[in-house]
Amino acid sequence: MKHDVEIRVLGSNDAALMREMLSMFGAAFEDFATYTGNQPDDTYLTGLLSGRNFIAIVALREGQVIGGLTAYVLSKFEQMRSEVYIYDLAVEEDFRRQGIATALIREVQKEARTRGARLVFVQADCEDEHAVALYSTLGTGKQVLHFEIRQPDGAA
User: Fold this and answer.
1) For residue 35, what are the CA distances in angstroms to 1, 26, 27, 48, 137?
2) Could you tell me the pTM of the whole model?
3) Which residues have a Cβ under 8 Å from the Cβ of 23 and sit 6 or more positions away?
4) What's the distance, CA 38 to chain centroid?
5) CB within 8 A of 131, min separation 6: which ones?
6) Do the beta carbons of residue 64 and residue 20 sit within 8 Å?
7) Domain count across the chain
8) Is 1 a residue whose pLDDT tops 80?
9) DSSP secondary structure string, the chain?
10) Fewer beta carbons within 10 angstroms: which end of the chain, N or C?
11) Cα 19–Cα 128–Cα 15 angle in degrees, nearest 5
12) What is the pLDDT of residues 42-101, one digit of tens each?
């Protein structure tokens, strides 16, 4: 990874950086509507960023967000432990293949440890060859099916 990139865990005072990360996600995933169309207000983002169950990490170059990772801390029920689920991870196209995604994952591993999590896991679409290749270098893959169970009658 280039040395002019700062990896930073966001905190309660970082709503503006969170919004920058959301815009970067919109561009990287080609889905602006989801990431920028109906963003929560600053009070919501501040609460999310200050909680123990959400992790947001950015890669900054010259103060600009060029990569980001969001994750959730899941408390387990069968034992007193937790796991961290990486929800979104992206790096701007011009900065890919420079070790930034790996640095973001390494940082979430450190953050997970401080929150008592025993492992970090992530899903990848089989056709997303780059993501599968990255995650394969960092951990063990398992073939699973993912189901989205919608609420009846479109309820939220």
Assistant:
1) 27, 5, 9, 16, 28
2) 0.84
3) 35, 36, 65
4) 19
5) 89, 124, 125
6) yes
7) 1
8) no
9) --TTEEEEE--TT-HHHHHHHHHHHHHHTT-HHHHHTTPPPHHHHHHHHHSSSEEEEEEEETTEEEEEEEEEEEE-SSSS-EEEEEEEEEE-GGGTTSSHHHHHHHHHHHHHHHTTEEEEEE---TT-HHHHHHHHHHS----------PPGGG--
10) C
11) 10
12) 999 999 999 999 999 999 999 999 999 999 999 999 988 899 999 999 999 999 999 999
List the structure tokens of 136: 């394969």
Amino acid at residue number 74: L
Q: Which two tokens stand for residue 54?
A: 């959400």
Question: What is the total residue count of the chain?
Answer: 156
Written as six digits, the tokens of 20 are 């920058």
Q: What is the largest CA-CA distance in the chain?
A: 51
What CATH number is associated with residue 73?
Answer: 3.40.630.30
Q: Are 109 and 116 in contact (CB under 8 A)?
A: no
Sequence letter at residue 153: D
